[in-house]
Amino acid sequence: MLLETLKTLLSVYGPTGNETQVAEAVKKIVAGKVDNAKVDVMGNLIIEKKGQEGGKKIMFSAHMDHIGMVVTAIEKDGFLRVTNVGGLGTKMTDTRHVVFQNGVHGVAVCQPTKDAPSMASMFVDIGAEDQEDAEKRVSVGDVCVFANDTVMLGENRVAAPAMDDRCACALLAELLIQVQNPLNTIVAVFSTQEEVGMRGAKPAAYAVNPDIGIGLDVTGWGDTPEVKYPDIKLGKGAGIKFMDRSMISTPWVRDALISVAEKNKIPYQREVLPYGGTDGAAMQQTRGGIPACTISIPCRYVHSACEVIDMRDMNSALDIMKAFVNTQL
Question: Has 4 been annotated as catalytic?
């Protein structure tokens, strides 16, 4: 069930550069439903579900990593100095509950400053008495993330940290489970280090060398007070990307996704994002160029501790993906 898969993956620790536990969780979810699985040097989990003879090879890529903060120093009074790993700012982080891989909890705080706050102003309070006490629990180089707090908002919406991009990982896992004997071969890449420059998807796409690449990620929102752009609304269907800052989607791939959605009466939205980037760009710029597009999940409050999506958009995306892998391309 898509919602249960989503909740499972949201609960797993997996900051940028340390996605191993997420990969292990995905392997358990899809066990017995796929043809082969491997982990490459970058930590990408690459899973194949073979299609029929004459079909295309479609690579879907959803990133496993979650933005976080790495400890840069431990002060004499026991507070942890940190810097961001991925696109994390002080406004979204101040006084938020964070957790380390070993289960140590803390509060991220932005200290008072005369200047505009920056990550240099951030520290994490783990309740340590002093430096010696803190060093018993945490070391320089350890990474904390927003602590998991998954909640339903009404009947269809879900709020949680790590929704970017575990919601897409859940979609990709469910695609592998639900599709039997697809027309086209599915190569599902659960990628690493997307939040610091799509570093995992690039070598994965080079190795896979697919005929078509489809990125899976969240996108911005335009349906809350004073936020009306991009023209994307929760609950109105998955986004089919025309462009963002990292890519202009390959027109025929984009149009094929739209055709699949319209033919099967699946709700979708045309997405133009004036910022951001996805693994779709990494695939598009690999080798001599791979035809690529991205399917997006509308998400409010991206890169915060309470990222909000709508399960109706998740179901829309999954339906488009299932139809696409069974389309003659």
Answer: no
